[in-house]
Amino acid sequence: MAKYDPLENYLIQTNDKLEEVVLSFAQIESIIGATLPPDAYNPSGTWWRNTNDAKRPQAKAWLSAGWKIAATNQAEKRVRFIRQ
């Protein structure tokens, strides 16, 4: 199992009626059972880009689940996912 597979599974299993999900970084860490890398906490927010390539397995997880990042709030350490 890849590190971000649990996040992909979580998003896949999210209620079909929800068009938006907001998760804290801590919730994501709980879901994946690991600490997010320092880049995820970087104010530039580039780690959270919706780029599906081999260098971004985290993005592959949410994009494969049918979601994308709509916004990040680095100050509050939260991410807003929306359905694609």
Write a brief caption for the model.
The protein has 84 residues and is of the alpha+beta class. It has 3 helices and 3 strands; from the N terminus they run αβααββ.
Topology record:
Elements: H1 5-12, E1 20-24, H2 25-32, H3 57-64, E2 67-73, E3 78-83
Antiparallel strand pairs: 1-3, 2-3
Structural summary, described in words:
This protein has 84 residues and is α+β, with helices and mostly antiparallel strands. It contains 3 helices and 3 strands; from the N terminus they run H-E-H-H-E-E. It has helices at residues 5-12, 25-32, 57-64, and strands spanning 20-24, 67-73, 78-83. The protein has a 3-stranded antiparallel β-sheet. Helix 1 (5-12) packs parallel to helix 3. The protein is globular. The model has no long low-confidence stretch (mean pLDDT 96).
Percent helix, as a range, is 25-40%
Oligomer: single chain
Look at the structure and give the mean pLDDT. 96
* Rg (CA only): 12 Å
Global geometry: globular
**Sheet with the most strands, sense and barrel status:** 3 strands, antiparallel
Terminal Cα separation, in Å? 24 Å
Observed structural traits:
84 residues; alpha+beta; globular; 29% helix; 3-stranded antiparallel sheet; 3 strands
